[in-house]
Each structure stands twice: as structure tokens, then as C-alpha cells.
Write a structure and sequence with these properties.
Layout lengths: L1 H8 L3 H10 L2 E2 L2 E2 H30 L7 H4 L1 E4 L2 E4 L1 H25 L3 H31 L13 H32 L2 H5 L3 H26 L1
Antiparallel strand pairs: 1-2, 3-4
Helix pairs in contact: 3-7, 3-9, 5-6, 5-9, 6-7, 7-9
Length: 224
């Protein structure tokens, strides 16, 4: 009898699952945004480890480390211009951060057209950045840079460069696909049916993080 009374006191399984599913957020932060922050925090640890390792290798081989102005120069009109390609890449990526911020703004205004256009523009700028990075990789490979050697000095340069910039480029490439997917859903009215453009802001968090990481890579790799 006691067992029957305890079973009757328990809520039905369906009610339990519905109550759990109804809890959309914790600490007044939507779950999607909270999970993105956790992901970005874990990614911060990874990039921090990469850049810290790079600093250690760079300082231990300071005398033989290649000069960035020499390595990352581009011949234009018969004249070598140092860091010109990197400067353009950085400008493109920072500009994309501005278009993404505008996309989030228009998303919360429920302006579907401008949100889609700005997100597509952001993805196009990201794709341009990746294309320029592929050109930079091709140029360096043709000049003899390998993960285990390079013609300018410390052999660790190649492995550090390809690992760190490649990992960041992978993030940008994934971000381009992510933005286009979200933009397509905005275009079809998916988020209006859900009553929220929150996913656009979450995509913006990811994109701003990618841009911020590049600022550190730019400072550590190309200016130091």
C-alpha cells in the first residue's frame, strides 16, 4: 500500500519532461548564449596555450627567428612592400565585425532584409579573409616554408605559423558557414515564428571572438 501511495504522489513522466523543457534560461541568460560563452571560454584557453607556446619558442630562438617584414612582404610594381597583405586582411576582418554588429542591431529591430544583407556581407568578408590567407600560405610554401623548416632561420617558425593561423582560419571558415545558415533562417522567417532573433546575436558573439583572436595573432606574429 505504501508503495502505491508513493507512486501516486510522483508526477507523471510527461509533466517532468515538460517542466524541464520549459526552463529556457538560467540566471536570466538564455541557454544558447550561455553555451556559446562556455564554448568561447574553452576556445580562449586553446588559443592562449598556442600563443603562449609561440612566445616561448620565439624567445628561445630570438637570434634566428625570421624578420616578419622580410617574410610577409608582397612584391608590387617591382618593389617589396612589407605586411601589406596582412594589413588588408586585418582591415577586412575588422570591417566584418562592424557589419556583424549592424546585423545584430537590425535583427532586434525585426528588420529581416537588412539583417540578411549584413550577415551575408559579413560572411563574404570572412570568405575574402580566408582566400587571402590561402594566398599567403601558397606564397610561403612556394618560397620554401615548411612545418619543419624555412629558408630564413629558425625551423620552428613554419610549424608555429601554420598551426596557429590555420586553426584561426578554420574558425573563420566555420563562422562563414554558420553565418550563412543563420542568414538563411532569418530570410525564411524562422526566427520570427519563434519570436526571437537571439540566434543572430549568438552568431555575432562567435564572430567578434574570431576577430578579437586575430588582433592578438596579428600583434604576436606580424608586428613582434
Amino acid at each position: 500500500m505504501a508503495h502505491d501511495s508513493q507512486a501516486a504522489a510522483l508526477p507523471p513522466l510527461r509533466q517532468v519532461t515538460e517542466d524541464f523543457a520549459a526552463d529556457k534560461q538560467a540566471f536570466s541568460v538564455p541557454w544558447g548564449k550561455a553555451m556559446m560563452w562556455i564554448f568561447l571560454l574553452s576556445d580562449t584557453f586553446i588559443f592562449t596555450c598556442f600563443l603562449t607556446s609561440y612566445m616561448n619558442v620565439r624567445l628561445s630562438t630570438l637570434a634566428t627567428w625570421p624578420n616578419p617584414s622580410q617574410v610577409f612582404s608582397l612584391n608590387i610594381g617591382g618593389q617589396d612592400i612589407p605586411l601589406i597583405l596582412i594589413a588588408i586582411m586585418t582591415f577586412v576582418l575588422i570591417t566584418s565585425s562592424g557589419t556583424m554588429a549592424l546585423a545584430v542591431n537590425y535583427g532586434y529591430r525585426r528588420n529581416r532584409r537588412y539583417t540578411v544583407l549584413l550577415m551575408v556581407a559579413t560572411a563574404a568578408l570572412g570568405a575574402t579573409f580566408v582566400s587571402m590567407q590561402a594566398f599567403e600560405w601558397t606564397k610561403l610554401i612556394m618560397e620554401g616554408v615548411r612545418p619543419w623548416s624555412n629558408p630564413w632561420g629558425a625551423p620552428q617558425f613554419g610549424s608555429a605559423f601554420f598551426m596557429i593561423t590555420g586553426f584561426h582560419g578554420l574558425h573563420v571558415s566555420a563562422g562563414v558557414i554558420y553565418l550563412l545558415t543563420v542568414a538563411r533562417r532569418v530570410h525564411t522567417g524562422f526566427y520570427e515564428k519563434r519570436g526571437s532573433y537571439e540566434t543572430v546575436e549568438i552568431a555575432g558573439l562567435y564572430w567578434h571572438f574570431v576577430d578579437l583572436v586575430w588582433v592578438f595573432i596579428f600583434a604576436f606574429f606580424y608586428l613582434w
